[in-house]
Design brief:
Elements: H1 3-18, H2 26-29, H3 39-43, E1 52-56, H4 60-66, H5 72-89, H6 97-101, E2 105-112, E3 142-148, H7 151-162, E4 170-174, E5 177-184, E6 187-194, E7 198-202, H8 205-215, H9 227-233, E8 240-246, H10 249-259, H11 268-274, E9 277-287, E10 290-299, E11 325-330, H12 332-343, H13 347-361, H14 367-373, E12 378-385, E13 396-403, H15 407-423, E14 427-433, E15 436-443, E16 447-456, E17 459-464, H16 466-473, H17 484-490, E18 500-504, H18 510-517, H19 522-528, E19 531-542, E20 545-554
Antiparallel strand pairs: 1-2, 1-8, 2-3, 3-7, 4-5, 5-6, 6-7, 8-9, 9-10, 10-20, 11-12, 11-18, 12-13, 13-17, 14-15, 15-16, 16-17, 18-19, 19-20
Helix pairs in contact: 1-7, 14-15
């Protein structure tokens, strides 16, 4: 956080708390806050025009649970980051978060309001100047609501701030409420205390005034169509840290896109796709496995054309236990058909598909029938470590495994591909691996570049690299679904589901591989080393609901 902004935050809080009451009302200050600690209570002072809101709890239980995870190095890094953050926030003051703020500050709601257009006076464009821009960047409009859980502690903190050097307050009245303006380096922050239970802050005065209007009786985010239901239900996660509410997903995307000068106007087809999603609510919590994120999207069943089908999950058993990354699912052919149907509304997409179809026809391959048509069962793609042959430089290879009810078409397609390889002077030969006939595309002195074969009557695999073909076709160790890490990362995810996205961070090669593709510093690697794995899945109980779940499985703190 920049120093100028960090210095604004604390004086603004203190200024607003000054008007929260008087020291004479001791018993009142020690009484309950009346709804300031729940999301619905905070949402009642957020204007109904808010596009979305995030509710962050300060309940110590969830954050304490989080401290049970992480390597000693990662915990030291986090502790140092928090210490540096506190020093930056309270630099040059006698304020302490633990002593002065934590006792009274409750949970926080951060709302995103529709952006305000930049006023013409702010442009400083000389009169008569040509080519005045019409697509102006709009200002972000953020409103923060902090619950006051102990009013006496809040008042003591405000009085302490009044003695701090360089803290200047300016009051103004709006609808009988005192708005405090704190300005530093020409950048103001506005705040107001409402009903002695909520502290409202914003970088724009208009946002605070709208919150006061809401407090006085105008429609609130809590009563907004679509918001009330998701605020009351939320997402069921243990030890919730945060909940995110988007009552009108399409409307939010439209308004945020319109506020960006770089964004193009959304085409009608894209808007129609967005309108499939009515509202979204997400939750972040901590349980015995790590940090869990759940997202629930409420869909319009009339517009939702996606045909969800759960995946049996058997395909995972075809991969060796050292598979460190995997994506699985069901029915590629159905997804392809939906994409082709959707392309009719997108000329550019339709043109691209026709170009690919035309190019493949030159080599006697039908994109729809020969490539995707037979992929009607469960599928998975996995990354498997190996440093042999053609994989020596990258350190891993991959395997695609498909269940199909149309073996005849699948075999015909593979035969066509083998013929293409032979025409490119690639040696195509057969090899027996674990009693299975495997066809390999061989490169002199480096072994097989690609291999394919049948694991059983209905299951075909394609491997990138000869060693990967050996690992899949002649598996001698545990299968992936019986591995400890896979069970720890995916075992608590919802079942049945549509498939998995799985990443094993516990493998000695995983972090170095990530680091080789993405530039990482020492701190990032320390954090990555504290993660055991990542698991992701999705379900759709009916045509009006889609649920996503992700687990960031963390290593427990060594005792």
């Amino acid at each position: 956080m920049p120093e100028s902004k960090s210095k604004l935050f604390i004086p603004a809080i203190g200024a607003a708390v000054v008007v929260a009451g008087s020291i004479a009302a001791y018993t009142y200050f020690k009484g309950p806050s009346g709804g300031s600690s729940d999301a619905l209570g905070s949402a009642k002072v957020v204007p109904s025009t808010a596009l979305m809101a995030t509710y962050i709890t300060t309940d110590s239980q969830g954050w304490a649970k989080l401290q049970q995870f992480g390597t000693p190095e990662a915990q030291k890094l986090v502790a140092k980051s928090l210490e540096d953050f506190n020093k930056q926030i309270f630099s040059g003051s006698n304020v302490s978060y633990e002593k002065d703020i934590k006792p009274w500050a409750g949970s926080v709601m951060i709302a995103v309001l529709p952006p305000n257009p930049v006023k013409s006076a702010q442009l400083n464009v000389p009169s008569g100047a040509p080519n005045v821009p019409t697509n102006l960047q709009q200002e972000p409009n953020i409103l923060m609501v902090v619950g006051i859980k102990d009013k006496l502690s809040a008042l003591n903190f405000a009085n302490k701030l009044k003695s701090e050097k360089g803290v200047k307050f300016q009051e103004s009245d709006y609808q009988g409420q005192k708005i405090i303006e704190t300005t530093e380096n020409g950048k103001p922050t506005y705040s107001v205390a409402l009903n002695n239970s909520h502290l409202v802050l914003a970088p724009q005065k208009q946002a605070v005034e709208k919150a006061i209007d809401t407090f006085k009786g105008q429609s609130s985010f809590a009563s907004k169509e679509g918001a009330s239901t998701i605020l009351n239900k939320g997402v069921d996660v243990k030890n919730s840290l945060a909940q995110i509410y988007v009552p009108d997903y399409a409307g939010m995307v439209q308004q945020l896109a319109a506020a960006s000068p770089q964004a193009k106007q959304l085409p009608p087809q894209a808007l129609a796709q967005l309108k499939q999603i009515k509202s979204v609510v997400a939750g972040v919590g901590v349980d015995d496995a790590g940090v869990r994120v759940k997202v629930i999207a409420n869909l319009d069943p009339q517009l939702n054309k996606f045909q969800y089908q759960s995946s049996p999950g058997n395909i995972v058993g075809q991969f060796p236990t050292d598979t460190f990354a995997l994506v699985s699912g069901n029915g590629i052919s159905r997804s392809w058909e939906a994409l082709v149907e959707q392309s009719k509304d997108y000329p550019e997409m339709k043109q691209a598909l026709e170009q690919v179809r035309g190019q493949l026809k030159f080599v006697n391959i039908d994109l729809d029938k020969d490539i995707f048509g037979w992929m009607n069962g469960e599928f998975a793609f996995g990354a498997i470590p190996s440093n042999q042959g053609v994989l020596a430089t990258v350190g891993f290879g991959g395997a695609l495994v498909f269940d199909t009810s149309d073996r005849k078409t699948a075999e015909a397609t593979l035969t066509k591909l083998d013929t293409l390889a032979k025409n490119q002077q690639i040696n195509v030969a057969n090899r027996n691996i674990g009693g299975k006939d495997v066809t390999e595309w061989q490169i002199p002195r480096q072994g097989a570049l690609l291999a394919h074969g049948w694991l059983d009557q209905d299951t075909v695999f394609v491997a990138l690299g000869g060693p990967i073909a050996d690992a899949v076709a002649d598996r001698k160790n545990l299968s992936l679904d019986n591995g400890d890490v896979f069970k720890a990362v995916t075992g608590s995810l919802q079942r049945p589901n549509g498939g998995y996205l799985y990443l094993d961070m516990d493998k000695t090669k995983t972090v170095p591989l990530i680091n080789s593709f993405v530039s990482s510093n020492a701190d990032t690697i320390t954090i990555l080393n504290s993660i055991r794995g990542i698991g992701f899945t999705a379900i759709s109980p009916d045509k009006s609901t889609s649920e996503l779940e992700m687990l960031l499985a963390l290593k427990p703190t060594a005792k």
